[in-house]
Amino acid sequence: MKMRFGMVALVLCTFGRIAFADTLGAIQQKLREREGKLHDICFGYTLDYTIAWHGQAAHSYPHRGGTFIISLCRSTAGITKIAFSSRADTNKKISDRLKNSISSLIDDAQFEWWYGEGWSAFFQGTIDGNWHLLLFPCTNNGVYCDLYRTDVRYNFTRFDPVILGNFTLIQENTGDIHWSVVYEDARQWTLRGEYEASAGQKGTVHVVLSKPEMQLLSVEMQEMYKRGHQARAITLKKWIIRQWKSIKGLKIPSLIIVEEKKPYATIKSVVHLIEIHPLNKNLSPDFPLGTRVADYRLIDYADLLRSITIFDDSTKNKVVRYIWDGHLYTREELKQLAYQQGNLVPPETSRQRYSLWLFAPA
Q: With the CA atoms of 43, 156, 176 and 135 taken in that order, what torsion angle do they form, in degrees rounded to the nearest 10?
């Protein structure tokens, strides 16, 4: 009798897995259809945030919050640009005039993230009179890959550009995230994704979608650092959508409540969608000529992700450094430049020494 019940349970479990697998495929197909309607478009956001420091950090960091302005443009060609400018340490809201002209702030951004097929980039404003650009490898489109975490006070994770850009998060091409359907009822689906996070961390993400519209209701991520049999939460971040706006027959998030918990602080944010307009020009990397570039694209994405930081001994000697001349090098062109610098040589060839930055003549 116990064996019979065991066989029945096994059969039910197997059928359940098959059913959920079929459901996942159907969800991905519907999201692909939705995705096709949101190309060549720009979104403008304001983000008001507050920080509650924990323990000794409360005495060490006087910063308590501020406002960010975010402009995100995505093109049919697969290029995405996010301009991120801050109005920190202010109790005043963005003026109506500023809200109505957010698109004019793109050129004044303090930070920019760029994404394309097989790469992502982080561009930072002037430091000691210089511009700096970091280029990273990716296994697919960079918008789906883990990214360089900056020291800006709002922690921009790998899911922020996907949510703010209304990209299809639950897709086969989301790189290293392995998805499964874990719950379904008459009103919604809940999906779980597992992935390798940076510095050896393990990540999980739960996404809730409404039925049948496929509206995004919430996203929750958790990244754990494991040492031996012990696991410690490094980041816990949740996005809850409160309001939506209709565009091209779709409902997209227009008010997002975000809460992030770290060992040293809790950050709460309110994100407002304040502008949507068509992208009326070609989107391509347009960094200032003379920008200093540190290019990591010859390093395997998985190896880079496992590094504690991008300045690890295991990665820093493989970086190709050069001056931006208006051209995004292909991988082959990057290899040729690395050979010239002595950063990519056959094992039997002695390694030459070169200066940290390669200054090419104009």
A: 90
